[in-house]
Design brief:
single chain; alpha+beta; five-stranded mixed sheet
């Protein structure tokens, strides 16, 4: 799925609207993640916090035409790209949300699909490919260690 520039800017605007619910400089800090819930049938993008409080809501017209196949995979790619672009532009630098916090893609049941972006000064999300087989390696190492 490739979204038009107009739809991408609309999604970015919706994310900014959600972030405006956390005004910087008021001395209060919040512990939360930001959840993004795209819904293919209705074209909705709902953004909410850990307390299920809706922060922003939009209808993405191009999602209405999506056939539903690979919808979350397609929206993951688009949302990740938009969030990374916003992060690089400094959009999340002064939020009063305690780090680390994540932007999380959730399904219609609000179950986590994946972390889209982790905001932290010194932590990075690692690609799944890099971690494949790590459990086996760690188990093997532990077994050898316990044998001695």
């Amino acid at each position: 799925m490739k979204l038009s520039q107009q739809s991408q800017l609309f999604i970015e605007s919706t994310i900014r609207e959600a972030m405006d619910k956390y005004p910087s400089g008021n001395g209060q800090t919040v512990v939360t993640d930001i959840h993004l819930q795209p819904i293919s049938g209705s074209g909705e993008l709902i953004i909410f916090d850990d307390n299920d409080e809706e922060l922003s809501h939009a209808i993405i017209e191009e999602w209405l035409a999506h056939d539903g196949i690979n919808f979350y995979k397609d929206t993951e790619r688009v949302l990740r790209s938009i969030l990374n672009r916003m992060k690089e532009g400094g959009s999340f630098d002064n939020l009063p949300i305690i780090q680390p916090f994540s932007f999380v893609l959730v399904d219609e049941d609000r179950e986590t699909i994946t972390d889209l972006l982790l905001i932290d000064d010194d932590t990075f999300l690692v690609n799944e490919e890099l971690l494949k087989g790590l459990d086996k390696e760690l188990n093997s190492f532990l077994k050898k260690l316990l044998e001695y």
